[in-house]
Amino acid sequence: MAALLDIRDVTVEYDGHRVLDGVSLAVRAGEILGVIGETGSGKTTLARAVAGLAPVRSGHIDFAGTELTALRGRALRAWRRTGALQYVFQDPLRALDPQHTVAAAVGEGLAVAGTFTAPEIAARVEGALARVGLDPDLAGRRPGEISGGQRQRVLLARALAVGPRLLLCDEPVSALDASNRNHVLRLLAGLRDTGVTVVVISHDLSSLAGIADRVAVLYGGRLVEHGPIGEVLTAPRHPYTALLAASSPSVRRVRPIPAASLRGPGDRAVLPGGCSYAGRCPFATGACDTAPALSTVDGDRAVACHRAAEWRGLVQVGS
Amino acid sequence: MRRLALAGLLLVAVLAVAGGLLAPHDPLHQDPDLALHAPTWAHPFGTDYLGRDVLSRLVAGTGATVVAAIESVGVGLLLGVAPGLASLWLGRGVEWVLLRAVDALMTLPFIVFAVAVTGILGNGLTQAMLAIGVLFAPLFFRVTRAAGLALTRAQYVEAAELFGASRARVLRTHVWGKVLPTVAVTAAQATGGALLAVSSLTFLGIGVQPPAPTWGGVLASDLGFLAQQPWAPIIPAALIALTVAALNTLADDRGALRAAR
Amino acid sequence: MLRVDDLRVTVGGDLEAVREVSLTLGPGEALGLVGESGSGKTLTCRAVLGVLPPGAAVAGGRVTLGEVELTSLDRKGWDRVRGGRIGAVFQDPASYLNPSLTVGRQLAEQLRLKRGLPRKATRAAAVDLLAAMGIRRPEAVHDQYPHELSGGMLQRALIAIAVAGEPELLVADEATTALDPAVQAEVLELLGDLRARRGLALLLVSHDLAVVAEVCDRVAVFYAGQIVEQGPTASVIANPRHPYTAALLRVASLGDWRRRELEVIPGRPPSVGASGPGCAFAERCAHAAEGCAAPVPLSIVDDRVVRCHRAGELALAGA
Predict the structure, then answer these.
(1) Which pLDDT band holds residue A102 (cuts at 50, 70, 90)?
(2) Which stretches of chain C score pLDDT less than 50?
(3) Angle at the Cα of C137 (from C131 to C140), degrees rounded to 5?
(4) Per the CB < 8 Å rule, is B159 touching A52?
(5) Are the C-beta atoms of residues A26 and A3 closer than 8 Å to each other?
(6) What is residue C312's DSSP assignment?
(7) What residues of B are in the A interface, CB distance below 8 Å?
(8) CA–CA min distance B171, chain A (Å)
(9) How far apart, in whole angstroms, are the C-alpha atoms of residue B203 and residue B192?
(10) Chain B residue closest to A97 (CA)?
């Protein structure tokens, strides 16, 4: 599969503080890519950098042949008006204008594009609402007058109305209960069947695994592992991925590796040029004072860990 | 309170529009026999030193006074709101220049500035009110800026920009509706202040040539004859005070409404 | 030890948001209250703490802790119970800490107030307590201000303050919901640890059945203001008796990483006070029959208390 979005060696700095450090990642056309990692891992920054909302210091972001980091001013606005790439914010209460109706919010992108008549916009808004399973009667309501699950779907409809090729969703379900969460994720899964490529940031690994094709794991601003989501979560190559998988709550309470055995002492200093995870890693050695490169394993997987081959043998079950 | 204020302002508005038609007597008609007369049925507010009917002069003077006040607020809105928004959306250079200009304007005292301007541009109410309007601009500038500042970082503004929306469009669809209530309240308050300023200026004889009637003018002429009629200045003074109070009541009320929401 | 009898909580005057809720919690036990937002689980927990939101009031029933009837306490009585016999932690720890005082000072205040420690002894006791919460550098954290700590650290500090008075009962209201998964797992482990070491009883409120399953030995499932099923967690999960519990299980995190069709619960819960005399879940229930319009008595099926007409006859799938 060809890459629709190709992120190459992207670094983002805020006030001299590096929040994304040389991340390279390709999103293939027609797939759902999950992005996981903790607060501060850089996952939101990565999505915002692609959307043009974060200051990219170096690197390239190529979307179907267009170099996004080079776009400025008029050219940037013109590109955005094509609607090809849509960023779905995390918190609909903040991302929706409280004074605008659902219809106005969903139709905003079309109105901005300026190539549609009012009836065309109305028809597309209705279509977008139907696509996310929202009652057309809600069109006249304002964000404060609908439920949290409905608001989240309004955000999705707003992005879908402009006919995007790629959707970047920043934690679209973290504020929702299990049923609403699954509802929204199912909508995203349904989009794949209509040819839309989706990048979804989530920390609910189990439901993410239900819909995603591949997953990228970020830690401390670096990409530490990526590959097919089922394989990565079942047999993690990076200790941090393993910790995330073992920490994910489950009604079944079955864990091949207990989370406690994957937590390090936390007293190791993190060196500027070293592995970003070394400070928390129970398997870190002297080699981890230099940053590990992302290396391909098993064809479709990649991991950045000096001890990827050995750590599993060192896990002390029962500690 | 709000109803009372609204009723009062409605009355002032009617007087301002109809003015001379409603006056029981010709405001310019002099009757030396009746000079400085106490209230009677024919002249409920008495007469002035030239024997002119005070009620008629106040009624006829409403138009000029109110129009002048609104004029100055209009100039203030024009010179304050647009630059206020521009300072937020046109980059740091524009912002710096505008902030310094506003700081400079704010140091000027109202009346002195108006006197100076009429001194240069000629003695007319329009010139005087233009001057007052310029001095209102910093108020509207600051208020608009304060209301809009949070919106520059609002996520829905960012979201609109991600659709490729122009600055003008963002201002029209997302910003204007949130800034407007604040601006409206400020305008009501400023109108009160402007009425006082008009009255002060006409009291000083600036802006309007006698014998044309204005509220401030009536007050000034009454004050000249305190010895004969100590009660007389109370009538125009009360009229000015009550109108200003009504405007402030309304402004506060709208403010409370907005806060509640 | 904690006993809730036929509790009723009204909101806005006469809308019954919690109806006929009865539960018990023994020393050292852990009970989980689970349900969607608006199901009454949080109001029940707030009634136990005596901190109902404005507009909500206990309209009937009794809450007793040991021999003390909490529902009839005055302010002074509550001050003795809260912090002394009951500790509480909530979703947003930052808002429960004073930003201008160090963590240590706020902890010391509790230690002096509730345990009567002399001023000189508090520092050592506070540092010990922070260390017992799994905080790695307790001396440093003791002298730090809330804004200098991460969400997970803050929640640990808040737990330390909650247990400083050596309470019998710890109430955790969505205490791990806002945390990253790896940190959530650590805090849940800490809660389990406190139970084991201090004999602390735990009342855990969560919308996530998987979180409850991780730490609680019993679970009460709330729907539309009532408890619809209550029993031992393991058996409820393996063999649910109420169709709503079964539905919650289908949407919960299973801890497996297969690609699958995500389940949703169709429809929406009734709004507060809007349910009639019959089963409140009937309209969303796949097993609803004609008899479900009649009032549902609580029935005891095996080790379970269930509020379902068909509890005895349905065979529902567990996880």
Answers:
(1) very high
(2) none
(3) 110
(4) no
(5) yes
(6) T
(7) 154-156, 158-166, 169, 173-174, 177-178
(8) 13
(9) 16
(10) B156
